From TrEMBL, chain A:
Keywords: ATP-binding, Lipoprotein, Nucleotide-binding, Transport. GO terms for cellular component: membrane protein complex. Residues 2-223 form the ABC transporter domain. This is Lipoprotein-releasing system ATP-binding protein LolD. InterPro entries: AAA+_ATPase, ABC_transporter-like_ATP-bd, ABC_transporter-like_CS, MacB-like_ATP-bd, P-loop_NTPase. Belongs to the ABC transporter superfamily. It comes from candidate division TA06 bacterium. PANTHER family: CELL DIVISION ATP-BINDING PROTEIN FTSE (PTHR42798:SF6), LIPOPROTEIN-RELEASING SYSTEM ATP-BINDING PROTEIN LOLD (PTHR42798). It comes from the Bacteria. GO terms for molecular function: ATP binding; ATP hydrolysis activity; transmembrane transporter activity.
UniProtKB/TrEMBL annotation, chain B:
It comes from candidate division TA06 bacterium. InterPro entries: ABC3_permease_C, Lipoprotein-release_system, MacB_PCD. The chain crosses the membrane at residues 21-45, 266-288, 309-339, 368-388. Belongs to the ABC-4 integral membrane protein family. LolC/E subfamily. This is ABC transporter permease. It comes from the Bacteria. One of its GO terms (biological process) is lipoprotein localization to outer membrane. The keyword Cell membrane applies.
Length: 223, 402
């Protein structure tokens, strides 16, 4: 589903160059549940940003569902994100003025012009927060907010979900529950999950572990 | 999607409630002033025009060919023979010939200048309805031989009462000074300062005799519809005279009105600009505070256009609410000026440049509601354009990291 070939991302080209990614080549199949880990500055977030079409590589090719997206405009990348990619962040990034239901609905609304209320409630039910539909983010715990963000990512039935340190702000109990929920979704809907993490708990759930160091793949292990 | 953007925008603007409310109040103040000032100036303008047409010039005035628009009254050299132009009187049902000249009025202790208006009582009344404005005594049709009708303000300033005598001193058409003793037979109050502060009415025949202008007149006032067309017709039909519309003869007032409205618009514009800066500031601060959120919306696939639209809608909503508030505020502060009016007499005899005096009523101002609303929203949209564009151009990678 995803193919990266000799991907490079260089900051400050022509000046003091920083190689955030250096000749990274990866294949990710549909339904994978993988983590990208490594020390700070190893290029994890940069890789996730490029995979999520939030950023573009300096050189190399990126094929998403056999389409070369490395040379697309920002507008086209926005369209790919809208329909195919869901995001989960460490800080949840819910819209504070919208209820849990509305947060999930907004994602679906952007992706598909026609949808049913049940689609939203089902996505919320999948992660166990159907009862919190009318609550605002400030009225929910961190774990509950993260579940809303998972429902928001899932509701549009994306091909790929990118999760950047999703358990970093959660206690171990909540982190485990969140990971179990995502694992379940991965198995139920065959949606691909890519995590950027330091958390051994997240890595323990992964089927594949990619370790980055200085922008290069140091190891790529499958369990 | 648009509906959801509106809902989101509406919720967003009340996130910083105090800031938004201050902006809305400032905006409402500017829009309210726009409504109030325009209503008041329109009220003054309408009263002025009514005073000019109904009490002074009428719609058209026919003057001698050599009449100079800068002269306060026609000079005796421009007088023309009335009998040659009876066709004008026959053609227009409501027309009034007159002679106007300037004279000094002298009482036992005070002297002042006045415009003497010699008119045919019935004809002048048919055009100007002066008999309805007599506050004391009678109109000149019922005055005794030596009596005249005097403007209320002159009578007051000269301390003249009904039956009092004063002396009229003037230079006649032959260049000789003459003086006559006259009695006050009536006091008139029209609301037009040109009449009330300056004019003395007497029969046309008497002024012709005073001015040694037998059979001559200085002008004919005509009340008619379509005055622009009729002016052209008269000028094409009659030689030796020229027809002027009330607008031609009120250039000074009209220019002053334009200038005052321009000045008032400028003042209001500056207030609105200040309020606009408020909207700009509110939206821009909102944009800075919500950078991460904008990044998330972009990550979810919201386009630049939709992000820009979201912030523009936020500005537009503030402008719309501010404008609605401003309209309510403007109509409210205007209300006493519509019902009770604006009392110009507090400025004494000061000439404000408009042919109005005493109490002037403001218009309701309903005609300014739609322009105020459109103007309010458009200005708000313009004010929010820059923050909206900045929000649209934010890069999600950077903002999500903030």
């Amino acid at each position: 589903m995803i193919k990266l070939e000799n991907l490079k991302k260089t900051y400050n080209p022509g000046k003091i160059e920083v190689h955030a990614l250096d000749n990274v080549s990866i294949n990710i199949e549909e339904g994978e549940f993988l983590t990208v880990h490594g020390p700070s500055g190893s290029g994890k977030t940069t890789l996730l940003n490029i995979l999520g079409c939030l950023d573009i590589a300096t050189s190399g090719d990126y094929y998403f569902k056999e389409r070369d997206v490395s040379k697309l405009s920002m507008s086209d990348l926005s369209n790919i994100r809208r329909i195919n990619i869901g995001f989960i962040f460490q800080t949840y990034n819910l819209i504070p003025v919208l209820t849990a239901y509305e947060n999930v609905e907004l994602s679906l609304m952007l992706a598909h012009s026609k949808y049913k209320k049940e689609d939203i409630l089902n996505a919320m039910d999948d992660v166990g927060i159907k009862d919190l539909a009318k609550r605002f983010p400030r009225e929910m715990s961190g774990g509950q907010q993260q579940r809303v963000s998972i429902a928001r990512a899932l509701v549009k039935s994306p091909k790929l979900i990118l999760a950047d340190e999703p358990t970093a702000n959660l206690d171990s109990e909540n982190a485990t529950m969140i990971m179990e929920a995502m694992k379940e979704m991965n198995e139920k809907y065959n949606v691909t999950f890519v995590f950027s993490t330091h958390d051994p708990l997240v890595m323990s759930f992964a089927k594949r572990l990619i370790k980055l160091k200085d922008g290069k793949i140091e190891t790529d292990e499958r369990k | 999607m648009i509906k959801r953007l509106f809902t989101l925008a509406f919720k967003n603007i009340f996130r910083a409630r105090n800031r938004t409310m201050i902006t809305i109040v400032a905006y409402a103040f500017g829009i309210g002033l726009y409504i109030f000032m325009n209503s008041l100036l329109t009220g003054i303008y309408n009263t002025s025009v009514k005073n000019i047409i109904d009490k002074d010039i009428s719609k058209i005035k026919v003057m001698g060919n050599d009449y100079n628009l800068d002269d306060v009254v026609p000079l005796p050299e421009t007088y023309f023979e009335y009998t040659k132009y009876t066709g004008i009187s026959n053609q227009y049902e409501y027309s009034s010939p007159d002679i106007q000249f300037i004279a000094n009025i002298i009482t036992s202790d005070i002297s002042t200048k006045a415009v003497i208006r010699g008119v045919e009582p019935d004809k002048a009344d048919s055009v100007f309805h002066y008999s309805n404005d007599i506050v004391e005594g009678v109109w000149i049709d019922r005055c005794k031989d030596n009596e005249v009708v005097i403007g209320g303000r002159i009578a007051h300033s000269l301390n003249l009462k009904l039956g009092d005598m004063f002396t009229l001193v003037f230079k006649n058409r032959d260049g000789n000074f003459d003086a006559f003793d006259l009695d006050v037979g009536g006091i008139i109050s029209t609301g037009n300062p040109n009449i009330d502060r300056l004019s003395i009415f007497m029969p046309l025949a008497k002024t012709q005799e005073f001015m040694a202008a037998n059979g001559l007149i200085s002008g004919i006032s005509i009340k008619t519809k379509n005055h622009e067309t009729e002016k052209i017709k008269i000028n094409e039909t009659f030689t030796g005279v020229s027809a002027y519309t009330w607008e031609d003869l009120s250039e000074g007032f009209l220019n002053l009105d334009k200038m005052k409205k321009g000045f008032s618009s400028l003042l209001i514009f500056m207030i609105v600009i200040v309020a606009t800066v408020g909207i700009f500031n509110t939206i821009l601060l909102g944009m800075f505070e919500r950078k991460r959120e904008i990044g998330m919306l972009k990550a979810m696939g919201m386009s630049r256009r939709q992000i820009g639209l979201l912030f523009s809608i936020e500005g537009g909503i503030i402008g719309f609410i501010g404008s609605l508030g401003g309209i309510a505020f403007g109509l409210l502060i205007n209300l006493p000026f519509v019902i009770k009016g604006f009392d110009l007499s507090m400025y004494g005899e000061m000439d404000i440049g408009y042919p109005v005096q005493d109490v002037v009523k403001s218009t309701w101002g309903f005609e300014f509601i739609i322009p105020a609303l459109i103007l309010g929203v458009i200005i708000a949209l313009i004010a929010s354009w820059y923050p909206a564009m900045r929000a649209a151009k934010l890069e999600p990678v950077k903002t999500l990291r903030d």
